[in-house]
Amino acid sequence: MLEILIVGAVSSAIYAMLAVGFTLIFGVARVLNLAHGSFYALGAYGTYFFTAHLKWPLLLAAIAAIAVVAVFGVFVERVLVRPMRASQLAVLMITLAVALVVEQAMFLTFGSEYRNVPAFVDAKFHIGGVDVAGARLLALGVGAAVIAALWLFIQHTRLGSAILAISQDPQAAQYMGIPSDRIFTVVMALSAALAALAGILAGPFLTVQPTMWLLPIVKAFAIVVVGGLGSIPGSILAALLLGYAETIVGYTVSTSWTEIVSVAATLLMLVVRPAGFFGKRAAF
Amino acid sequence: MFNKPVDLFGAAAFIAFMAVLPLIFPGNYLIGVLTVSVIYGIWAVSWDFMSGLTGRENFGHSLFIGVGAYTAGFLNTTLGVNGWWSLPAAMVMAVLFALLMGLPTLRLKGPYFALAMLSGAVIMQRLMLIFWEQTGGEEGINGLTPLIRNQLGFYYFALGVLVVTTALLMWLARSNWGLILRAIRGDEATCQAAGINVTYYKIASLMISAAFAGAGGAMYAHYQLQVSPQLFAVVTSITIITMVYVGGMATIYGPVGGAILLVLLTELLRNFGEWRLMIYSCTLIGILFFLPNGLIAPTWRRVRASLGAKE
Amino acid sequence: MSATLLEVRNLNKHFGGLHAVKNVGFDIVRGEVVGILGPNGAGKTTLYNLLTGFIPPDAGATIRFQGQNILGVAPHRIAGLGISRTFQLCRPFVGLSVLENVLVGALGAGGAKIAGNLDARARELLQRVGLGGKEAVPVEVLSYGDQRRLEIARALAARPALLLLDEPFAGLGSGEIDDLSRLIRQVHADEGLTVLLIEHKLREFMRLVDRVIALDFGEVIAEGLPEAIVKHPAVIEAYIGRDNTLDLGAGHAA
């Protein structure tokens, strides 16, 4: 029981990081970024590369990986997404194409075998009679901290208010002189960095292979739909729900069913309540 | 719009070319490649009919393909039914799935419909793996019997199905059906105000699209003589969409050329082995940016203009 | 065949806390041209959306068309029963030609209702609205005034009994307004249509309508002949505030 509580919390934290980044860029720029899963993958692969091939210390490798992914995210937004922004479907196609290119690039560079992302904390901890890997606890802790920091940032800084303004009413924000384009870039970098961080934290205990981008994006989409597009509290709540739902299913039924939980939840939500729990913009 | 003699001439020339090619360059390798390209053509044309005309892009077309293929697999191996029943059965199953998926998802806005269909395909792929005892899991179903033992014979059959499919769907697209679908693409609310039952048309066109995709899936199964969960993969759906983009969205005939071109290209790139999919994906990005109207249809329009000028 | 074409009683609509349409009730007699007047936000388009089934009214409403209850009927069915509408912002079917746009209108109401060739009917309608010769033109290229005419042709294609026009003169210059106004009068006479017309420009109204229903904040504040409405204190207040004069020539208010 305690194990479920902890493992569920860890999953939720990772999913929350993924979902919040995804919902941020959607809320601000109306971009459904299917390459978001690639940022997650690149975070993990980047860290692997820097540590295994360049022999850098882990912390440095992680920071470098996040930075590289953030820059890549900005590149994708500026060069590939921006010209297509008139059509949401075009953006969907182009980001999906990017995801495929990244997948193939990882495949060509690193092969299809599972790679190893080292953990920050190797120790195992004993909590209330349950063995928990330090890496999982770290993921939980860092994830929660980062999301809290992001929330504070959005609520209490000028940039944060600008982000909120644009996501609520893009035209009004423009009239008020808020530099939307520059903010898209910042948000994309943030979103990518969050995804990369999630990949780095989860890498040690989740599989790292070229197709690892697909399930995270399906789940991020699931969470964002359930929680409500553009709503950060919604994403966090939905991430918790889905993280725990998956964990419970995994422990009680079987692990192979876990992947279906989020996808099925999405479909159900889209059908029953397309605006999600807190969404302002329905998928309708 | 494809109603002049020059168009019939072009179609006939294309069919003749495709029929004669394996006779000029004999060998099972080429026949195999052409067969696969023709089946992809069926899939691409079926996608274009619904998504191209209505503008509601379906990212989960592989769902119908996989359903058709697995239906064929089950009927043929587990139930021992003659392979020729696979086609109608596959079409029925695919249509049922289209109804099942379409009813709740077609009222969603574009990107959400696309992703909902994608989710559907992902779920099916997962289910095939979860119920591995019934479906054979990763290995899938093996040992299907071929429909026509002669490779060339099967190729001509597939080519025939492609021609019939394309002709039928083009006819529908040019009829009042197609007009309504294109109007739906323009503005759904106005369509409703004009008295058109938009939901009916969207679902019906999805079902038609699914039927042909499923048929293609069954044919593919009886060609490869095996069925695997890979058929449900995202890559399949995206490949088909790429073929339609290359061919020319909403033209119905363009995707035929797109499919054949891309499959042939992929074969030529065999030497590049692992780089194939990478080149493919980069091509997609290139097309989206530089040739949004595609390659095949605009080229044909130019050709027929120069030919038409003579007539 | 009763003279009352449309009967509306106790029509209410809440959007969350906003009472957008309040206890609206009226009768529309066959063959009338009735104007719906109201400043922006008065609930006019919402009224149309309620009548045509795009949004459901609050409980307790009655809407009868040709004696038949049309509450809860899907929009496309309502159109099929004989109510055609246009939209405030012109919405032609992009990607289709002018002729195709009208054809869709004819197809929509069930081609069976229309005897004979749909194509011929569409072309005839285009001639009537003054778009003859532009059949093959893609709609994106049309001027706004022509798009308005196209909308009317499309709405007429289904041989409606009741035509709902939503601010047909919005965005048009005064010459175009006169032309369109004449067209509406003509079509009304030729086809024996009943027309409901939303506008907030008074001048055009006066010449076109037999009767006016004035709305403000979702309620009917006055009903009657145009000359009487214009002098009605509630209407004046809604439009101009406390000013006693309402200049017919000035056109719009608020």
What does this structure look like?
The complex is a heterotrimer of chains A (284), B (311) and C (254). Chain A is an all-alpha fold. Chain A contains 11 helices and 2 strands, in the order ααααββααααααα. In chain A, helix 2 (36-53) crosses helix 8 (180-202) and helix 2 crosses helix 9 (214-227). Chain B has one domain (5-233). Chain B has helices spanning 5-24, 28-54, 62-78, 86-105, 110-130, 132-135, 151-174, 176-186, 188-193, 198-224, 234-247, 254-268, 276-290, 296-310, and strands at residues 141-142, 226-227. The radius of gyration of chain B is 19 Å and the shape is globular. By secondary structure, chain C is of the alpha/beta class. The longest helix of chain C is centred in the C-terminal third of the chain and has 18 residues, at 174-191. The chains are: A mainly alpha (284), B mainly alpha (311), C alpha/beta (254). Chains in contact: A-B, B-C.
Can you tag this structure with a few keywords?
heterotrimer, B: 311 residues, mainly alpha, two-stranded antiparallel ribbon, 14 helices, 2 strands, globular, C: 254 residues, alpha/beta, Rossmann fold, 6-stranded mixed sheet, 4-stranded antiparallel sheet, disordered C terminus
Summarize the structure.
Chain B is an all-alpha fold and 311 residues long.
How are the secondary structure elements laid out?
The complex is a heterotrimer of chains A (284), B (311) and C (254).
Chain A: H1 2-29, H2 36-53, H3 58-81, H4 88-110, E1 124-127, E2 130-133, H5 134-156, H6 158-168, H7 170-175, H8 180-202, H9 214-227, H10 232-252, H11 258-272
Antiparallel strand pairs in A: 1-2
Helix pairs in contact in A: 1-5, 1-6, 1-8, 1-9, 1-10, 2-3, 2-4, 2-8, 2-9, 3-8, 5-6, 5-8, 9-10, 9-11, 10-11
Chain B: H1 5-24, H2 28-54, H3 62-78, H4 86-105, H5 110-130, H6 132-135, E1 141-142, H7 151-174, H8 176-186, H9 188-193, H10 198-224, E2 226-227, H11 234-247, H12 254-268, H13 276-290, H14 296-310
Antiparallel strand pairs in B: 1-2
Chain C: E1 4-15, E2 18-29, E3 33-37, H1 44-51, E4 62-65, E5 68-69, H2 75-81, E6 83-85, H3 98-108, H4 118-128, H5 144-157, E7 162-166, H6 174-191, E8 194-199, H7 202-208, E9 211-216, E10 219-224, H8 226-231, H9 233-240
Parallel strand pairs in C: 3-8, 3-9, 6-7, 7-8
Antiparallel strand pairs in C: 1-2, 1-4, 4-5, 9-10
Helix pairs in contact in C: 3-4, 3-5, 4-5
